[in-house]
Each structure stands twice: as C-alpha cells, then as structure tokens.
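User: Predict the structure for this protein chain, please.
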Amino acid sequence: MEKKEIIIIGGGIIGSTTAYFLTRHPAYDPSIHQITLIEATSIASGASGKAGGLLALWAYPSCLVHLSFKLHAELAQEHSGAEKWGYRTLHCAQISATARPPQKRGDKARAALEARGVPAAIDWVLPHLVTSYEEMGTPETTAQVHPFEFTTAMAELAQEAGVRIVLGSVTAVSQRHGAVCSVTYRDKLSSEEVTLPASTTVLAAGPWSPTLLPAAPISALRAHSVTIEPARPVSAYALFTEIRTLPSEGHGRGKVVSPEIYPRPKNSVYVCGEGDTLVPLPASTELVECNEARCGDIVDQVALLSDELRDGKVTARQACYLPVVEGPGSSGPLVGETGVKGLLLAAGHSCWGIQNGPATGKLISEFVFDGRAVSADISSLDPRKYLKGLKKR
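Assistant: Here is the predicted structure, written as structure tokens:
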C-alpha cells in the first residue's frame, strides 16, 4: 500500500473531524500512513469554540445536513457524547416579542401565551411580551452540542488513533509538477521553520483559508456572543427571536433586534447577536478582539424577554469570525478537490460548521482514501467551480 503523508491545516471543527474520520477509514493504517494536524493557536480557538452548537435537519446545505445529523447521533452514542460534549435533542422555535413595561406573571398572562401556541415549558419568557410563536424544530429534527467540548473531543480521539497535532502557523503549501509536495510552518514555541513532506493537504482554516489559497472566495463575518448562568434552570427550547425594543432617542418606535438563545445542559444559556464586518479579520484567533459594548447589547436584549436571563450571571463575553463563501447562488461551504493534485479544501461553513463538521470530515476522508466522495453527493460544493483560475506550479 502506498504511504500517504496527510497534512491538515486548521484545528477547528472541520480539521478535527477530518482527522477523526481519516483514522476511522477502513484503509487507514497507522503503521503506514502519517497524519499531522497543524493549528496556529490551539484546538477550537476560533468559531469552533465559540459557536452556538445547534444541530438541525432543516439546516443547509441539504447535501451535508442529513449525513452530518446522523453522524452526530452516532458519535454521541459511541463516545458518550451526552456526558462529554453536552449532546442532546431539543425543541426550537421562532418567537416575536415587543418590549413593554414590566408586569407580574399571572394566570391571565399565561393563558394568553398558551393561546398563541407557546408551550407551557417555556416559562422563562415573559408572557405579556410574546406576539407570535412558530415551531421550527422538534427533538426528532433538532439537537445541540457544546462546540468547544465536541471539537476538542474529536481532536483528542484522532490523536489517540495516531494523529500528530502540532502548534504552528503554516507559511507555505509547496507544489512540484502541479501536485502538493510539502507544507512549511513556523513552530509556535520555538519560532523555528519546519517543512513536512505531504502527499495530501487538507486546507480547513475557516476564514483564514484564503491566506494560503487566495483564489478561495471566502470572507469573514464577525460574531459576538455571551453565555449566561440563568437565575434558575430553563427548559431545552432554542429560540430565534425578533424583539421590538422600547422607544428611544433616534428610534421612535423602537428597533427590532434578533438575538438567538440556546439553553445548554448544566444551567447555561448561550446567546449570540447579529454578525458584522466592521473589524477586518486579524492574523490569528488569539488576536480577535471582543467588543464589550456589543456583548452588553446582547445581554440587554435578552433581559427584555426573560427575568431568568436578566437576573442571571454573565459567564463569558466573546467574539469570533465565521467563514462565508462569496459567490452567486452559494450558501454552503466548499468541500473537495481544488484542481491541484493532493490539495483539498474544506471551508466556508458559515454558521453551520458544527452541524456539518462530521459529514465534511467523513467526506474528506473518502476523497483522501477513495479518491471521491462516497457517502453523499456534494458536487454542488465542488471548490473547482470557484477556483478556475488557480495556478499549478
């Protein structure tokens, strides 16, 4: 069997699940093949450690979603995911509300809420504020994980199976006769430049992927989020909200804000706000700056909707950058061959990276060992559609 020297660039969810599934492929033999994952800062230091972790059969793109949702359940079953990374199924809904002066929660308010179709279990939302409720997902179609715990667990399982993880910043992916031949990185601790031979390189560096592959049409969207320990435990209902705030100077009718609220196990609630492009992507995850005012806005917004969140303790304020594919009609990631022999791209997953990580990792492992995607038809995600001008060297 021909020896494969596989380099994965990026230690987020895509790189970590790729490493995991490479070691689970029937053709993988640790005595023959060598897999190295290179991460610039630390595993899950970017969006993969700060995302919401929602999983849904109604996510996109559909060519990845069903396979990945199934793999999440299988991984949780095999590796005790409920205990190790907070895997659980849950409900999901869209809720609209209008901020009003505080009122006491009474039987009339509860009855009005039930008349709008709001389940009694969502007793942590102020009843008199809700104007509409629409179910988006059930425990059969929706689940969640803790992104940091899931990503680091995948990396650790891959490492146990023979993957070598090194910390360093990749500076070059070299070619010879139109094929990848080596990867050079600067070691994080020693600053020494190291060059590793490579027969296959998987570029999974999220929004930083264009640094090494400038032709990749991937941009960065900044996202802020907070985690809150609520004043009391809240039910497992993920809520996509539209809240009209109270009138203020410059907003005579109030403004509409849309925080997303994801209750987690262990009495924690994750809340994220709208993305922005106000600050360019920095050179690495450790240079990402968190705007305290934006995090404060998120806390204030959910305080309008829930006393439990208003009176809770903010346990984290954070920011990250999501990789977004730019191009007409594109809403999904780029996964597969690039046109350069041995160079695979797996990036641009936007807000569904955690959801679609397992499917992406499994499919990339098939590209490496089978020469094609076997488990799903992902021809619509072919990077070569966007990399037609990529030069071979």
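The two ends are 27 Å apart (CA to CA).
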